[in-house]
Structure formats: structure tokens, C-alpha cells
What does this fold into?
Amino acid sequence: MNLNLSPQDIEFQQEVRAFLKDKLTPELAAAGRLATSVFIEPEFTLPWQRILHERGWVAPHWPKEYGGPGWSEMQRYIFASECARAGAPGLAP
It folds into this structure.
């Protein structure tokens, strides 16, 4: 099992990091860090969901034909890891 990132995965990781740096406001990051459960206050969840929706990233497990990004397992892992590292609010259940 190879756990090293491919050049494409590294490029995707950089894309996610740039997106988070640009779109994750300090207020949203604070809400994500302070959440005590998977249910975050709607005043923080909804704006983050809208931002992700605009990018086409609100449903990371969905295939493209159903409106998702069509990511690989590794891309979903990278996205989740980078969001957690940045303190982004969780996705709405």
C-alpha cells in the first residue's frame, strides 16, 4: 500500500489549501474549532455550505453525474484533512 501523495494529489492539496485560505473566514474557522458536536449552529453552517456549494464541493462523496465533484478516495481524504487542519466547520449531516 502506497501512502505517498501523487503529483496530482499534491496539486489537489494545494488547491484545497488555497481555497481554504481564501474562503474560510476567521469567524467560520472559530465556529469550526469551537463546535462541541457534529451539529454546528446554522448561522455558521449555512454560510460555509453555501461557499462549498458555489465551488461544487458541498457533497464530496457524490459522483459528478449527481452534482458532486467526483473525487477519488484520496481526494476526499485530502479535503477532509485540510478542512480539519484549517478548523473549517463540518459538513451538514
Observations:
- Residues 7-23 form the longest helix (17 residues).
- Residues 5 and 74 are 8 Å apart (CA to CA).
